[in-house]
Queue: 2 jobs
Job 1
Amino acid sequence: MKPVGLKTKIFLDSGDSVETAEILGKLGFLDGQTTNPSLIAKSPESLQRLKSGDKFTAPEVTDFYQTVIQKVATIIPQGSISIEVYADEHTSAEAMIEQAKSFSTWTPRAQIKFPITTAGLQAAAAAVAMGLSVNMTLCFTQQQAAAVYAATAGAVKGQVYLSPFVGRLDDSGQNGIDLIKNIIQMYSAGDGHVEVLAASVRTMDHFFSSIKLGADIITAPSKILNEWSVGGLNLPPQDFVYHTGNLQPLAYEQLSLTNPWQEYDLNHPLTAKGLAKFAEDWNSIIKK
Ligand code: E4P
């Protein structure tokens, strides 16, 4: 059962529906699931197929993704399920919107993931205007978070998620948890239409810090959710302190949330790197 007093929604970060069932069994609840191209490409079913030397055709890989999503939806029918568009640096907003329209027919609780790039934000703004729900991924800066807020103004609460990537910032030597803290602080001046989803969560300290900071949602791999379950689904104690070690702090930036979104700086090397890696992993399972 969800611990009393836990307001943060807990999602599983996985491309494998077997894990969905396992984690639901262990936690007794699961508020949703996030997927991405790398997780789908590396899911056991996909790896099994590739092992036999048989890559997917382009239509088959989409069917495979749909099947995974629909299996997850059967296990957590009330849960939000994030489905990521294929995008590389050349993908147009129109191409992303076409995917979004199709993916949103797969399950009623679809949250379409777009990268925080110019084309991704154009697509997301159009998707939100059509009434679709979105999850803006590969967020590494407050400027990107402000752009997401501005580009989706007018959306209803729950229609827009923002995914700041904690672990990948840590990998680069910067304190990813500071990004969560800074965005929550910045968004506290807003209308609440964007929910903060702590992503790339790699440790129990990331998990507990995100709860403590009041993240709306955390997505975590099964390893972390298993660890949480073994520990008795504890909440961070009142005196919980996040030890940052040698990570460089990220200073808070005073930003307006109401500029035209095109005025914010959307660039970050980890966004470009993440986009390229998602595309590479996806293409690696498709026959040429
Ligand atoms: C979730 O939506 C993200 O794609 C995921 O949390 C990324 O995690 P990683 O940095 O461990 O790949």
Job 2
Amino acid sequence: MCGIAGYNGKQKAAPILIDSLKRLEYRGYDSAGIAVFDNTSIKVYKDKGKIAELEKGLPDITGSVGIGHTRWATHGRPDKVNAHPHTSGDIAVVHNGIIENYQTLKERLVHSGYTFVSETDTEVLAHLINHYYRNNLKEAVMSALKDVTGSYAVAVLRGTEMVAARKDSPLVVGLGSGENFIASDIPAVLKYTRNFILMDNMELACVYPDEVLFFDINNKPVEKAVTIIDWDMEAAEKSGYDHFMLKEIHEQPVSIHGAFAGRISELEGNIIFEDMGLSGEQVKEISRISVIACGTSLNAGLFGKYLFEHLAGIHVDVEIASEFRYAHSPPGSLVIAISQSGETADTLAALRQAKSYGSGTIAVTNVIGGTITREVDCVVYTRSGPEIGVAATKTFTSQLIVLYLLALYFGKLNGKISTDKIKRMISSLKKIPAQVTRILENREVVRECAENFASSNDFFFIGRTFNYPIALEGALKLKEISYIHAEGYAAGELKHGPLALISGKTPVVAIATRGLTYDKVVSNIKEVKARDAPVIAIADENDIEIEKYVDMVIRVPAADEILSPLLSTVVVQLLSYYVARERNCSIDQPRNLAKSVTVE
Ligand code: F6R
């Protein structure tokens, strides 16, 4: 995920910007750059690769005002031209987030005579601000941002003037004495100050050495409170959360939005995958897809199977990558390799095996430039930002979103789904980030539940259809970080064997949100209750009936049946997290596990 730094004061800006950017390195990046006003003009230094390399090539820059950026590529390759800052005339811009309508804006600006050098959405912003500039930087930024759909944290430099703004992407202002800072997060500048102002959505800050003035997008002054931070550096990197995993669970409203932003058009009922370049005829020829993946990504793949079969009428085989590479039968004509790291050796080996049959290949991954991205025909990035906790959380929900979009895209192209239905499904999708936020706000219920059951030795997670992969994922998460034995089962399969294990000592987490199989799941709940199992139901917030059959209910907002598994996912993630915390486990680095598994 990109990082922003800014400085306006009396010291040399460049070393402070470089130092701040280094403190944002943990977020992950593929290129970096700074722009400093050296009392004559803005000087830009940027390149792909590490900040330390950029630093080595810097001359002695005298200016005391500047902006900096670490880029995690979304639009355009990770290279020097696409690295930030981007300039237009004497204006320099760094930006995090995604400008969803950048194509439309770009066409408008090209028509007005602007020349684009990069493939980024950010360059649009630089030209747009330049376009509106009439001797007032703040007002030019306001006018430009009013034209933008999407998310942004942005820092703009012109001469000694610096303006920052945000919408759905984090940005803080650090207050010093005779100097002020901006940054994507607190740790970036915690070395210089402990006094911070946390910017809210649609706010702008004019940052001068001796004061910072805040405005709303309509130029109305805004009063802001100062927050004094007493965290140490390690706590600061986790933004005050006790663990990266909890931080990453909480980042999901933003990461989920990032996964679909710019890829949907509700007005036209369209899914946009520009790089895919598939025609309706080509999609009609795909009669079978093979998904290859491991672990959590495999669970996402199983969810993908339900999606593709339901929405696009295409049969999907989900293959465990480490097994598939020894298979003797050919995969489907299209193979989707899912891997958050893009480096998993088992998935790579299976992918190479699939390619030997001549199948077309798509990678769904989070890491730009990962090995997997270099071996497939097409890459769809999940855009979750870096995930530090070993247990995958936000990358999983982003994988679910990407698969949802792909299934809709294929279904539209092969005529299996109507434009009207896509419009309705996009409308439901857009509600998910806010619904996830509501679950996170109610996390105390999940924590209490975890407290009650943390001493259990065995757990079961059950669900049917779209919720079955989430039951598997719930069990996997719990195993990984709490070391409790847990099984995920298709609820209807319990009676074919595992029911023998059910007793008063095996809590059962039943995903019982409303949908086609709701009544059947309730019957399965009754089966386990009859064997004395304590049952925790994940159910819709308006489902009063369910209380009669279970011991605890964790409620989620009512959502479309196909999308509500995303909400249940957040619950099982929180449950695993709180159980592991009760048991004092090493949550971010569980024993025996690694974030990137590069051995077969
Ligand atoms: C679970 C987890 C692992 C990975 C698996 C595949 O939390 O992280 O199960 O999902 O090792 O990794 P990727 O997705 O990087 O291929």
